[in-house]
Amino acid sequence: MKKIIEDVVSFPNGCETVRFTACLVSMLMCARKETGEKKHEQLYQRYNLAAGYSFLQIDLSNDGHMAGSWELTSQKLLQEFDYYIAVVMDFAGYEFDKLDGGQESAFEKIKASIDRKIPVLMQLKKECQWVLVTGYDEEGTLYGLDGSQGYWGASPAEPSGYEGELFVLPDWSDKLAHAFVLGKRKEPGLTVDDIIRRGIRIMERMQEKAFYENSTAFMREDSHFTGCTDEELLRLRDRISQWIGQAIDQRAVLGWAMDPLLAQAEPSARTEALNAVRGLCWTTHDVLWVAWKAIGEYMAGAPIEWAGGLKNKTIRSVIADCFEIVKRHDEMILEHLKKGFLPA
Hints:
Elements: E1 2-4, H1 19-31, H2 37-51, H3 63-66, H4 70-81, H5 84-92, E2 94-100, H6 106-115, E3 120-124, E4 130-137, E5 142-145, E6 161-163, E7 166-169, H7 172-175, E8 176-185, H8 192-208, H9 211-220, H10 230-262, H11 269-294, H12 303-307, H13 313-341
């Protein structure tokens, strides 16, 4: 016998690149009997803010940061900061049960959640990536959504196959790092203002570590780009593109998250701060598109052709100048949030 939860809102919808947040929102919407891709996108922006991804920076000069995807680096930075999953669950107003790989009772608990028509959030060992379990069969196979039908590409779950949009994962227990089963509803322990104050602390930590300064200095250092082979320049181009991708994506999502907070809000220091942050996020987005285009992202021609431009100091200076603007914008975002949300 096979049991599948029907009508789970799939992902990604719109600009949804953080797998944790997209999977989480689909789980919460199912638990609350909410539907609609547009609703999913709006909640994604809200819960990406709550998790803390929207406030992060990463360091272009740090080989560890740039070795994998920016999403994986962001996840590690949040784990260093606090237990962000507990923060999100507290904000959402749910108790939860964490299941670890190798736990004998895991299948029974996952099965019980599916029987209640609530999907299960699963983290894989590979790349610490996330999928959403939406079904099972009595042979112990799990089924679910991994975003591979959208723009995310191949799933790190490496399923045995697909049935429509659903992955088929008979060997899930070997791949499981953790799973999170939604529990009882409770009164939320955190407000939006609490979440923004936490975001302030995250941004302070990022700025203390000088991630943007380091990234700008990396672009201005000639020795990183002189004497490189075409293949080395291509790797550098892809590395820079990934760094830009994190900032352009997460500040856009931060800006979008301001909209519902500003809707019908009375004028105050709080709304003034939110308005300022929204504008700064969109300027950051637009400025970084200049940097992205300078290395050929979403432009005609092969990436290897654009990579050669990194030998040109003028092109690198344009990119570094864009990074400087983004750095100043993040400093101003932090300043506005402090004025609007911290006691005088």
